[in-house]
Amino acid sequence: MPMKLPVPIEFRLPEGWLPAAPPDGIDVPGVAFAAVHPHPDRGFTANITVAGEVPQDSATLAELADASAQRLREVVEPVVVTQRREVGFEDAPALTQRLTFSGVVGDTQHDLVQSQVFLTFSDVLNPHRRAVIRLALTATADQHNEALGDFQEFVRTVRPDTGAGA
After folding, report:
1. Which of 3, 90, 92, 126 is deepest in the core (most CB within 10 A)?
2. Long-range pairs for 58-62 at CB < 8 Å and ≥24 separation?
3. 166 residues of the chain, pLDDT tens digit each
4. Which residue range(s) make up the domain with 57?
């Protein structure tokens, strides 16, 4: 069963990307939404996932990013954080990180890259409560740069869902 995000968001998928359907068919614990690239690379399908949490008030984005990398290490080893950068604004901090690791899909070993973006949102009902949304692109090392532009386009469309419609 997919997780429920702590705050409602809206976004637009890049052209050609397809929602993973049905939503309850997502086989990744703790994921609220997933989309897949239309062209797999040697059996691995690049994907974008969306997850979220309400962290403890004292938790920094770097600590949340460390925890995300550690969760991945529980599934595959080694996981290397190759890049991390704080971005955003003082009232809306964000963090990006890139992880590299290997995984087996079917009978094929793949070198994978995961780009993660951690966005902070205030709860519209309780502005003192902070929610963090984690967006992740996972692709083969060969396909990552091609898919990264689409992922960046996707990240730019993520915003709170105020229910007002577009």
Report:
1. 3
2. 61/86, 61/93, 61/94, 61/95, 61/118, 61/120, 61/132, 62/86, 62/95
3. 456 888 889 999 999 999 986 544 445 667 889 999 999 998 899 999 999 998 887 889 999 999 999 999 998 989 999 999 999 777 778 999 999 999 888 788 899 999 999 999 886 677 777 899 999 999 999 999 999 999 999 999 999 887 765 5
4. 9-160
